[in-house]
Amino acid sequence: MQTAATKTTMPVPPRRHMKEMVAFLQASPFLLPALLLFTVFFFYPIVKVVYLSLYLTNSKGVAKHFVGMQQYVELFTSPDFIQSLRVTLEFVLLTVIPGVFIALLLALLLEKQIRGLSVFQTILFSPISMSVAAVSTIGLMAFNPSVSLLNWILSNLFGIPNINWLNGPWTALLAISIVTIWMNLGFSTIVLLGALRNVSQELYDSARVDGVNALQRLYYITLPSISPTLFFVFVVSMIGSFQTFGQVNILTQGGPAGSTNLVVYSIYRNAFFNFQYGLASAQAVVLFLIVLVLTLLQFLVVERRVHYS
Amino acid sequence: MERNQNASRRPWIRKTAMWTVAASFGLTALLAGCGGGNTGSDENAAGGGGGANNGVIELKLWHAMGGVPGQALQHIVDDFNKSQSKIHVTAVYQGQYDDEFNKWKATQGQGGKDGPNIMQVYDIGTKFMIDSQDIVPMQDFIDQSHFDISQLEPNILGYYSVGGKLYSMPFNSSQPVLYYNKDMFKDAGIAEPPKTYDDVLADAKKLTKKGPDGKVAVYGIGLATYGWFFEQMLATQGADYVDHDNGRTGTATQAVFNGPEGLKIVNWWKSLYDAGVDLNLGPVTSQTQNAFLAGKCAMIIDSSGVYGNLVKGAKGKFEVGIGPLPRPAGATGGTIIGGGSLWITKDQPKAQQDAAWEFVKFAASPQEQAYWTETTGYFPITKAVYDDPGFKDWLKQYPDFQVAVDQLHSSKLTYATQGGLMGVFPQARQTVQDMLQAVLLGKQQPQPALDDAAKKVTDAIKNYNLTVA
Amino acid sequence: MKENRVWLVIRYILLIIASLVVCFPILYSLLISLETSEHVSTYPPQLWPHPFHFASYAEALQAAPLGRFLLNSFIMSAIIVCGQIVTSLLAAYAFVYLRFRGRGVLFLVFLATMMIPTEVTMIPNYMTIRSLGWLDSFAGLTVPFLANAFGIFLLRQYLLQLPYELFEAAKMDGAGHWRFLISVVVPLSRPILATLAVYVFLQSWNMYLWPLLTTNSTSMRTVQVGLGMLQNQDALSWNLTMAGVVIISLPTLILLFFAQKHLVKGLTAGAVKG
């Protein structure tokens, strides 16, 4: 991770403590507002969640019986939770990779200044402005095979037989994935487009002199140049996918037969309906650790190769 | 160089920002103007914390009614506020049942400051509400004011009565019925809606039509895999959902729906699906309603409360008929009431509780109930409504609704038709829905699937009982 | 030159196809909102409503005080945007330009806050807001969201791409951190700040569970809750619901339309590396 800040050398040892104090005092006004808010609204709840995961809770979510790691053991021996984890990982793969890929394609299409660009931009960014509730309600209509315009188009234009989207185990997950990709598309495209527009023109100019073709240019100049942003979009999409909830709640409620029962949805069910706040907390801790490890891996493996200016 | 660029960029940034703000505000103001009429004068009251001012007692009613029922409820509240000057009720929508219920759980134990005075809760929240001990049983008010409940529907009261005590006042009540497309029935030469499981299968086969491509174009039936239907179908066979007489004579300790009656339901369901005559659209009934209205299935099972909506949606396309909920041949049980009821919370001064009781009585009066049924299609909870001339006219307009009323009245009140009582009902319903889907998709055979589901529900009940005790 | 023209045509064709696919759901909801209730559920689906039926809009505005809700959503989102811009910019600045012990670890700790699903923190946060006496107020609606790791992460990635020489030059001129931040970093970050602002605005606009949980009166509700008020759980009225969807999405679409130009110009100014 060759960040810009490491370029300056560290001060001499004797006054190190003093220097550190100064550096810390200097940094604190910048960090304090966020740190304070995080402490109250994120760290405190996490501590509470970890605490609750060690207890059986009553119907109002108050810790009643200390059970230690029992709920964790229960989770990893429960076929439902294992299925839920598997489905979640499948879902993340189904949404992140195609999602970023499509957003990159759209951003490349929009990169060049052409006539009518602002119209295309507005349309292609538009998913960002729709709420989960709104999009999922549209999804209820679009995925119902008996009234679906989507199915009608698929069968009349492409000859694809009528699909009962939300009630096949495989197609239900696909439907949820499509909705999710669609919803994230606007943001990823905007951010990637911003990065593309900032790639140095000089690099392109020198490439032209060297007679590089379009694909080579993309691979050797564009992608490395936007790699920090690409990395950002990947990490954020992944975290977002792990937390997907609204679509599932409205479209499938985890069904059919658990095939779209993403971990967050199952946490929600356990916490709010099944009166098992403790178990839900244990699930939340497991999910948190998984996402944390995956993010750390991305930072360790990928950010090393990411090219900062 | 940088600075110059920035300076030259600033004006248009300001301009666009201003435009954006102006446009958003303009639109907002426009919409505020259009919709402002119904914000009403109730607003000041809502934030007030439900206390008394100027001698007027302010009450908050939480509910989960969106759309038409939401507006009808507001109408009843307005009627009540106009009918007297001592009590003022503010109805606040708190999201769908589940959201409202969860929110209520979170607001408990703060002296009623942020919580409601009156709360609408769905049927399956009954046991949880009783166990929470945060409510005052309706029976206390009935006894105290010698209120005559003989006019109220015993079959509706049955659900909300535990140990001979009425805990909440039924409000929106419905039962599942069979809706059918009369035109399709005529074309297929079927005179009557099917009454038994065998009839349904036979008729559904006749009604299923294949398109020119060999694919099914019209299904005989579209059966939502909604757990409520399974509960009802058990009751029609006189079978209980949980032990201890459906949780009515003692706290339930295990699920018992995996007996021969449950198996009969699941086998029948699977036979419909395997015969290719059932359109499986999952547990959400708005999906099967959509299919029914689009003419993609000839029958659906759904709540009696959606009748008005179906008639409206089918206008100009076909005629909607109602038949009773189908049952196995020879089954002699009845159906359970579903919907929601009004609860009075404990965390408030006695004067407010009494005021809340005044509203509950008002909402249960024949006049308001007639309006309620005519607008929403939910059953009236008082028999006096059937003598109301306006209501008689309404019934003439929707003659098929009589079938639903007859089904309600003909049910004999037993432990089975009173409905199961347990704290974890929302979870149980979801478990049964998953089970039905697993069977239809061929992931599990009916009996093992039922046994698995029953075991899961039993475990949940045990956990619940452990934390309530 | 001829090859360029071919590429241009291909580019347009692809853009048109992509646009059609992407805006399909929005168009679909618009078309359904203009149908009568009899025509909503038909197969084959009716593509074009005839005649246009605007009654659903009147009904939607009648069923819920959407105007008030829009105003509330607007105020709430605006507060959150301002808060997040400030907290994110400050923190991101510290992570890029200040050196202090544990910087990397602290950044990851910040980042970790993104990995907790809001469904999990909701109940503890509700208790906090309640004990602060902030229920049913804009403070309760906004304060928990005034800082977000996402914004810090986004800005950090952006600032890392700025040439470090700028900082050294400023230091030589004797500028301190605050002056450098305000006179160099803020102007240079304008495009990304705009992007962040738009994103945060839309995210806040689309919140559902939190506003529902922490507000108690109809007058403090936001548009997403309003959408629920249009829906009868037992019998969805599709045309009415879709009219609600269009009404609550319209302000954000308009915002996007104007902001989009802003974003694009900001981004194409190429101020970062010219």
Automatic annotation (TrEMBL), chain A:
Transmembrane segment boundaries: 21-47, 91-110, 122-143, 172-196, 217-239, 280-302
Keywords in alphabetical order: Cell membrane, Membrane, Sugar transport, Transmembrane, Transmembrane helix, Transport
GO cellular component, one term: plasma membrane
Subcellular location as annotated: Cell membrane
SUPFAM superfamilies recorded: MetI-like
Any single GO BP term: transmembrane transport
Boundaries of every ABC transmembrane type-1 domain copy: 85-298
The keyword Transmembrane helix appears for this protein: yes
InterPro entries: ABC_transporter_permease (IPR051393), MetI-like (IPR000515), MetI-like_sf (IPR035906)
Membrane topology qualifier: Multi-pass membrane protein
Primary location recorded for the protein, binned into one broad class: membrane
Family: Belongs to the binding-protein-dependent transport system permease family.
Record protein name field: Multiple sugar transport system permease protein/sn-glycerol 3-phosphate transport system permease protein
UniProtKB/TrEMBL annotation, chain B:
Transmembrane residue ranges: none
Gene Ontology cellular component list: cell envelope
Any GO BP: transmembrane transport
Cited PROSITE patterns: PROKAR_LIPOPROTEIN, SBP_BACTERIAL_1
UniProt key word Ligase: no
Compartments in which it is found: Cell envelope
Listed Pfam families: SBP_bac_8 (PF13416)
Gene3D superfamilies, per database record: Periplasmic binding protein-like II
Keywords recorded for this protein, A-Z: Periplasm, Signal, Transport
Similarity comment: Belongs to the bacterial solute-binding protein 1 family.
Name of the protein: sn-glycerol 3-phosphate transport system substrate-binding protein
Organism: Alicyclobacillus macrosporangiidus
Lineage: Bacteria, Bacillati, Bacillota, Bacilli, Bacillales
TrEMBL record, chain C:
GO biological process, one term: transmembrane transport
Keyword Transport included in the entry's annotation: yes
Topological relation to the membrane, as annotated: Multi-pass membrane protein
PROSITE patterns associated with the record: ABC_TM1
Organism: Alicyclobacillus macrosporangiidus
Protein name stated in the entry: sn-glycerol 3-phosphate transport system permease protein
UniProt xrefs under Pfam families: BPD_transp_1 (PF00528)
Predominant location category: membrane
Coiled coil: none
SUPFAM superfamilies, A to Z: MetI-like
CDD domains per the UniProt record, alphabetical: TM_PBP2
Sequence intervals crossing the membrane: 12-34, 74-98, 105-126, 138-159, 180-202, 236-258
Keywords (A to Z) from UniProt: Cell membrane, Membrane, Transmembrane, Transmembrane helix, Transport
Compartment(s): Cell membrane
